[in-house]
Amino acid sequence: MPAPHDSIITRANSLLAGGRVHDAIALATRAAQAGDPDALMQVAIWRLSGHPLPRDLPEARRLLRRAAEAGHADAALTEVALVGNGSGGAPDWPGALALLRSAARRDATAAAHLALVEAMALRPDGAPSTLLSGDRLSTSPDVTRFRQFCTPAECAHVASAAQHLLAPSAVVDPRTGRLTEHPVRTSDGGVFPPTREDLVLQAINRRIALATNTAVAQGEGLVVLRYRPGQQFRLHHDCLPGVRNQRIRTVLIYLTDEFTGGETQFPAASLTVRPQVGDAVLFTNTLSDGRPDPSATHAGLPVSTGTKWLATRWIRANPVDPWNAAQTAS
Fold it and tell me: What keywords does the record list, in alphabetical order (predicted)?
Protein backbone atom coordinates (compact mmCIF):
# COMPACT_ATOMS: atom_id res chain seq x y z
CA MET A 1 0.00 0.00 0.00
CA PRO A 2 1.54 3.38 -0.97
CA ALA A 3 2.53 5.83 1.74
CA PRO A 4 0.09 8.67 2.50
CA HIS A 5 0.43 11.76 0.37
CA ASP A 6 1.41 13.90 3.36
CA SER A 7 4.57 11.79 3.81
CA ILE A 8 6.03 12.78 0.43
CA ILE A 9 8.45 15.23 2.05
CA THR A 10 9.49 12.66 4.66
CA ARG A 11 10.14 10.20 1.86
CA ALA A 12 12.08 12.76 -0.19
CA ASN A 13 14.28 13.67 2.74
CA SER A 14 14.84 10.00 3.52
CA LEU A 15 15.96 9.43 -0.06
CA LEU A 16 18.24 12.44 0.22
CA ALA A 17 19.77 11.15 3.45
CA GLY A 18 20.37 7.82 1.77
CA GLY A 19 22.30 9.43 -1.06
CA ARG A 20 19.53 9.06 -3.65
CA VAL A 21 19.61 12.73 -4.53
CA HIS A 22 18.10 12.46 -8.01
CA ASP A 23 15.17 10.39 -6.73
CA ALA A 24 14.54 12.80 -3.87
CA ILE A 25 14.48 15.81 -6.18
CA ALA A 26 12.24 14.03 -8.67
CA LEU A 27 9.73 13.00 -6.00
CA ALA A 28 9.46 16.46 -4.43
CA THR A 29 9.46 18.25 -7.78
CA ARG A 30 6.61 16.14 -9.16
CA ALA A 31 4.53 16.86 -6.07
CA ALA A 32 5.35 20.57 -6.27
CA GLN A 33 4.36 20.70 -9.93
CA ALA A 34 1.04 19.13 -8.92
CA GLY A 35 0.52 21.98 -6.46
CA ASP A 36 1.24 20.23 -3.16
CA PRO A 37 1.99 23.09 -0.70
CA ASP A 38 4.44 21.10 1.44
CA ALA A 39 6.37 20.01 -1.63
CA LEU A 40 6.42 23.58 -2.94
CA MET A 41 7.83 24.70 0.41
CA GLN A 42 10.44 21.93 0.43
CA VAL A 43 11.72 22.69 -3.05
CA ALA A 44 11.78 26.40 -2.16
CA ILE A 45 13.93 25.59 0.87
CA TRP A 46 16.31 23.63 -1.34
CA ARG A 47 16.51 26.60 -3.72
CA LEU A 48 17.25 28.91 -0.81
CA SER A 49 19.88 26.72 0.81
CA GLY A 50 21.58 25.71 -2.42
CA HIS A 51 21.36 21.99 -1.59
CA PRO A 52 20.53 19.64 -3.21
CA LEU A 53 19.45 22.10 -5.92
CA PRO A 54 21.48 25.15 -6.98
CA ARG A 55 20.55 28.32 -5.14
CA ASP A 56 17.99 30.34 -7.09
CA LEU A 57 16.36 33.07 -5.00
CA PRO A 58 13.86 34.27 -7.64
CA GLU A 59 12.73 30.68 -8.22
CA ALA A 60 12.43 30.18 -4.46
CA ARG A 61 10.24 33.27 -4.30
CA ARG A 62 8.01 31.87 -7.08
CA LEU A 63 7.62 28.56 -5.25
CA LEU A 64 6.88 30.29 -1.96
CA ARG A 65 4.19 32.37 -3.64
CA ARG A 66 2.47 29.24 -4.92
CA ALA A 67 2.77 27.53 -1.53
CA ALA A 68 1.38 30.59 0.25
CA GLU A 69 -1.52 30.77 -2.18
CA ALA A 70 -2.21 27.12 -1.35
CA GLY A 71 -2.43 28.00 2.34
CA HIS A 72 1.08 27.17 3.63
CA ALA A 73 1.55 29.57 6.60
CA ASP A 74 5.35 29.18 6.91
CA ALA A 75 5.77 29.78 3.19
CA ALA A 76 3.75 32.98 3.49
CA LEU A 77 5.94 34.29 6.34
CA THR A 78 9.14 33.35 4.50
CA GLU A 79 7.92 35.13 1.39
CA VAL A 80 7.15 38.25 3.45
CA ALA A 81 10.72 38.24 4.79
CA LEU A 82 12.34 37.85 1.37
CA VAL A 83 10.18 40.47 -0.32
CA GLY A 84 10.93 42.92 2.48
CA ASN A 85 14.70 42.43 2.57
CA GLY A 86 15.12 42.12 -1.19
CA SER A 87 16.27 38.50 -1.45
CA GLY A 88 15.64 37.45 -5.04
CA GLY A 89 14.52 40.92 -6.08
CA ALA A 90 14.53 44.56 -5.02
CA PRO A 91 13.55 45.32 -1.40
CA ASP A 92 9.82 46.05 -1.37
CA TRP A 93 8.45 47.09 2.02
CA PRO A 94 4.96 48.02 0.76
CA GLY A 95 4.71 44.71 -1.10
CA ALA A 96 5.88 42.76 1.93
CA LEU A 97 3.43 44.60 4.18
CA ALA A 98 0.56 43.80 1.80
CA LEU A 99 1.55 40.12 1.88
CA LEU A 100 1.72 40.19 5.68
CA ARG A 101 -1.75 41.71 5.89
CA SER A 102 -3.07 38.98 3.64
CA ALA A 103 -1.37 36.25 5.70
CA ALA A 104 -2.65 37.80 8.94
CA ARG A 105 -6.21 37.05 7.93
CA ARG A 106 -5.46 33.32 8.14
CA ASP A 107 -2.52 32.92 10.51
CA ALA A 108 -2.14 34.01 14.15
CA THR A 109 1.65 34.42 13.93
CA ALA A 110 1.33 36.73 10.94
CA ALA A 111 -1.39 38.67 12.78
CA ALA A 112 0.93 39.13 15.79
CA HIS A 113 3.72 40.39 13.52
CA LEU A 114 1.32 42.80 11.84
CA ALA A 115 0.12 44.20 15.16
CA LEU A 116 3.69 44.99 16.20
CA VAL A 117 4.52 46.60 12.85
CA GLU A 118 1.36 48.71 12.86
CA ALA A 119 2.25 50.00 16.33
CA MET A 120 5.49 51.46 14.93
CA ALA A 121 5.76 54.98 13.50
CA LEU A 122 7.04 54.14 10.02
CA ARG A 123 7.41 55.79 6.64
CA PRO A 124 6.07 54.02 3.54
CA ASP A 125 9.50 52.39 3.03
CA GLY A 126 9.54 50.91 6.54
CA ALA A 127 12.06 53.39 7.95
CA PRO A 128 11.24 55.31 11.17
CA SER A 129 9.17 58.43 10.60
CA THR A 130 11.05 60.38 13.30
CA LEU A 131 14.74 61.08 13.80
CA LEU A 132 16.24 59.38 16.84
CA SER A 133 18.28 61.29 19.41
CA GLY A 134 20.75 59.78 21.83
CA ASP A 135 22.96 60.75 24.75
CA ARG A 136 26.70 60.83 24.13
CA LEU A 137 28.39 58.84 26.90
CA SER A 138 31.96 59.01 25.63
CA THR A 139 34.01 60.51 22.82
CA SER A 140 36.95 58.09 23.03
CA PRO A 141 35.57 55.64 22.21
CA ASP A 142 32.55 57.24 20.59
CA VAL A 143 29.61 55.80 22.58
CA THR A 144 25.97 56.93 22.41
CA ARG A 145 23.00 55.57 24.33
CA PHE A 146 19.45 55.65 22.95
CA ARG A 147 16.78 55.35 25.62
CA GLN A 148 13.76 53.16 24.77
CA PHE A 149 15.14 52.38 21.33
CA CYS A 150 12.77 49.40 21.22
CA THR A 151 9.51 48.87 23.07
CA PRO A 152 9.22 46.02 25.60
CA ALA A 153 6.91 44.22 23.15
CA GLU A 154 9.48 44.52 20.35
CA CYS A 155 12.22 43.25 22.67
CA ALA A 156 10.10 40.27 23.71
CA HIS A 157 9.44 39.47 20.05
CA VAL A 158 13.13 39.52 19.13
CA ALA A 159 14.05 37.23 22.03
CA SER A 160 11.18 34.86 21.32
CA ALA A 161 11.90 34.71 17.59
CA ALA A 162 15.53 33.80 18.33
CA GLN A 163 14.74 30.89 20.67
CA HIS A 164 15.16 28.18 18.01
CA LEU A 165 18.37 29.75 16.67
CA LEU A 166 20.35 29.65 19.91
CA ALA A 167 23.37 27.41 20.31
CA PRO A 168 26.45 27.58 22.55
CA SER A 169 28.95 30.12 21.26
CA ALA A 170 31.73 28.42 19.34
CA VAL A 171 34.62 29.09 16.99
CA VAL A 172 36.44 26.91 14.47
CA ASP A 173 39.66 25.40 15.85
CA PRO A 174 42.30 26.26 13.19
CA ARG A 175 44.20 23.05 13.95
CA THR A 176 41.33 20.57 13.63
CA GLY A 177 38.69 22.51 11.67
CA ARG A 178 36.13 21.54 14.29
CA LEU A 179 33.87 23.79 16.32
CA THR A 180 35.18 24.36 19.83
CA GLU A 181 34.12 26.41 22.83
CA HIS A 182 34.39 30.16 22.21
CA PRO A 183 37.35 31.44 24.26
CA VAL A 184 35.85 34.92 24.79
CA ARG A 185 32.06 34.66 24.63
CA THR A 186 30.37 32.12 26.90
CA SER A 187 26.76 32.92 25.97
CA ASP A 188 24.31 31.07 23.76
CA GLY A 189 23.72 32.88 20.49
CA GLY A 190 22.14 32.81 17.08
CA VAL A 191 21.91 35.00 13.98
CA PHE A 192 18.72 35.66 12.04
CA PRO A 193 19.13 34.46 8.43
CA PRO A 194 17.33 36.40 5.67
CA THR A 195 14.51 33.84 5.65
CA ARG A 196 13.73 34.60 9.32
CA GLU A 197 13.85 38.39 9.08
CA ASP A 198 10.19 39.14 9.70
CA LEU A 199 8.97 42.70 9.21
CA VAL A 200 9.33 43.51 12.91
CA LEU A 201 13.04 42.69 12.70
CA GLN A 202 13.39 44.53 9.40
CA ALA A 203 11.79 47.66 10.85
CA ILE A 204 14.24 47.49 13.77
CA ASN A 205 17.13 47.09 11.33
CA ARG A 206 15.92 50.20 9.48
CA ARG A 207 15.81 52.01 12.83
CA ILE A 208 19.40 50.96 13.47
CA ALA A 209 20.41 52.22 10.02
CA LEU A 210 18.93 55.64 10.82
CA ALA A 211 20.64 55.79 14.21
CA THR A 212 24.01 54.85 12.69
CA ASN A 213 23.60 56.99 9.56
CA THR A 214 24.25 53.94 7.38
CA ALA A 215 22.36 51.90 4.80
CA VAL A 216 20.39 48.86 5.95
CA ALA A 217 22.49 46.69 3.63
CA GLN A 218 25.64 47.55 5.61
CA GLY A 219 24.38 45.60 8.62
CA GLU A 220 25.18 41.97 9.29
CA GLY A 221 22.33 39.70 10.34
CA LEU A 222 20.92 40.58 13.74
CA VAL A 223 22.53 38.42 16.43
CA VAL A 224 20.77 37.50 19.68
CA LEU A 225 22.80 36.43 22.71
CA ARG A 226 21.53 34.85 25.93
CA TYR A 227 23.69 35.04 29.05
CA ARG A 228 22.89 32.93 32.09
CA PRO A 229 24.59 33.37 35.51
CA GLY A 230 28.36 33.27 35.15
CA GLN A 231 28.31 33.77 31.39
CA GLN A 232 30.03 36.79 29.89
CA PHE A 233 31.72 38.33 26.84
CA ARG A 234 35.29 38.93 27.93
CA LEU A 235 37.26 41.99 26.88
CA HIS A 236 37.38 42.12 23.09
CA HIS A 237 37.24 44.34 20.01
CA ASP A 238 34.54 44.00 17.34
CA CYS A 239 36.85 44.75 14.39
CA LEU A 240 37.88 41.69 12.44
CA PRO A 241 41.50 40.96 11.50
CA GLY A 242 42.56 41.23 7.87
CA VAL A 243 39.18 42.06 6.33
CA ARG A 244 38.49 44.53 3.52
CA ASN A 245 34.99 45.40 4.71
CA GLN A 246 35.45 46.28 8.37
CA ARG A 247 32.90 46.45 11.17
CA ILE A 248 32.82 50.20 11.68
CA ARG A 249 30.02 50.40 14.23
CA THR A 250 28.24 48.18 16.72
CA VAL A 251 24.71 48.49 18.09
CA LEU A 252 23.68 46.64 21.25
CA ILE A 253 19.99 46.42 22.18
CA TYR A 254 19.16 45.26 25.69
CA LEU A 255 16.16 42.96 25.38
CA THR A 256 15.73 42.36 29.12
CA ASP A 257 16.87 43.92 32.39
CA GLU A 258 15.60 41.45 34.99
CA PHE A 259 19.10 40.35 35.97
CA THR A 260 22.08 41.56 37.94
CA GLY A 261 25.56 42.00 36.56
CA GLY A 262 25.91 41.90 32.79
CA GLU A 263 26.95 45.53 32.36
CA THR A 264 28.74 46.69 29.20
CA GLN A 265 32.14 48.07 30.11
CA PHE A 266 34.55 50.29 28.13
CA PRO A 267 37.77 50.36 30.19
CA ALA A 268 39.47 53.08 28.11
CA ALA A 269 36.66 55.50 28.97
CA SER A 270 36.11 54.24 32.53
CA LEU A 271 32.53 53.72 31.35
CA THR A 272 30.13 51.04 32.56
CA VAL A 273 26.65 50.90 31.03
CA ARG A 274 23.88 49.28 33.06
CA PRO A 275 21.38 47.54 30.74
CA GLN A 276 17.78 48.72 30.73
CA VAL A 277 15.16 46.96 28.62
CA GLY A 278 14.73 48.58 25.20
CA ASP A 279 17.81 50.80 25.42
CA ALA A 280 20.45 50.67 22.69
CA VAL A 281 24.14 51.50 22.83
CA LEU A 282 25.94 52.55 19.66
CA PHE A 283 29.71 52.76 19.47
CA THR A 284 32.26 53.29 16.72
CA ASN A 285 34.95 50.63 16.25
CA THR A 286 37.27 52.44 13.85
CA LEU A 287 39.29 55.63 13.64
CA SER A 288 38.80 58.24 10.91
CA ASP A 289 41.35 56.44 8.71
CA GLY A 290 39.52 53.11 9.02
CA ARG A 291 41.96 51.46 11.41
CA PRO A 292 40.56 49.79 14.56
CA ASP A 293 40.17 52.20 17.47
CA PRO A 294 41.95 50.58 20.46
CA SER A 295 39.71 52.50 22.87
CA ALA A 296 36.64 50.63 21.55
CA THR A 297 37.72 47.45 23.35
CA HIS A 298 34.84 46.45 25.60
CA ALA A 299 33.35 43.61 27.63
CA GLY A 300 30.01 42.21 28.68
CA LEU A 301 30.52 41.57 32.39
CA PRO A 302 29.41 38.28 33.95
CA VAL A 303 25.74 37.91 34.78
CA SER A 304 25.20 37.34 38.49
CA THR A 305 21.51 36.43 38.65
CA GLY A 306 18.73 36.09 36.11
CA THR A 307 19.12 35.88 32.34
CA LYS A 308 20.39 38.64 30.07
CA TRP A 309 19.14 38.85 26.48
CA LEU A 310 20.99 41.08 24.05
CA ALA A 311 20.65 41.82 20.34
CA THR A 312 23.73 42.90 18.40
CA ARG A 313 24.07 44.29 14.89
CA TRP A 314 27.52 44.89 13.43
CA ILE A 315 27.65 47.57 10.76
CA ARG A 316 30.21 47.23 7.95
CA ALA A 317 31.89 49.99 5.96
CA ASN A 318 30.18 48.71 2.78
CA PRO A 319 27.11 46.59 2.04
CA VAL A 320 27.28 42.86 2.74
CA ASP A 321 25.50 40.02 0.99
CA PRO A 322 23.81 37.84 3.64
CA TRP A 323 23.64 34.97 1.15
CA ASN A 324 27.42 34.99 0.61
CA ALA A 325 29.16 33.71 3.74
CA ALA A 326 32.62 34.21 2.19
CA GLN A 327 31.88 37.88 1.54
CA THR A 328 30.57 38.42 5.06
CA ALA A 329 33.73 36.87 6.50
CA SER A 330 35.92 39.21 4.46
Answer: Dioxygenase, Endoplasmic reticulum, Glycoprotein, Iron, Metal-binding, Oxidoreductase, Vitamin C
Query: What is the layout of strands, in order, in the sheet containing 188-191?
Result: 135-139, 142-146, 280-284, 247-254, 308-316, 223-227, 188-191, 167-168
Asked if residue 36 is part of any domain, the answer here is yes
Domain that holds residue 75: 5-118
Instruction: Mark whether 183 and 54 lie in a shared domain.
Output: no
Q: Is residue 127 part of a domain?
A: no
> Which residue ranges in the chain fall short of pLDDT 70?
1-6, 170-181, 326-328, 330
CB 160 within 8 A of CB 198: no
In a domain, 128, yes or no: no
Residue 251 CB partners (closer than 8 Å, separation 6+) = 208, 211, 212, 280, 281, 282, 312, 313, 315
Q: What's the pLDDT tens digit per position in 237-281? A: 999 999 999 999 999 999 999 999 999 999 999 999 999 999 999
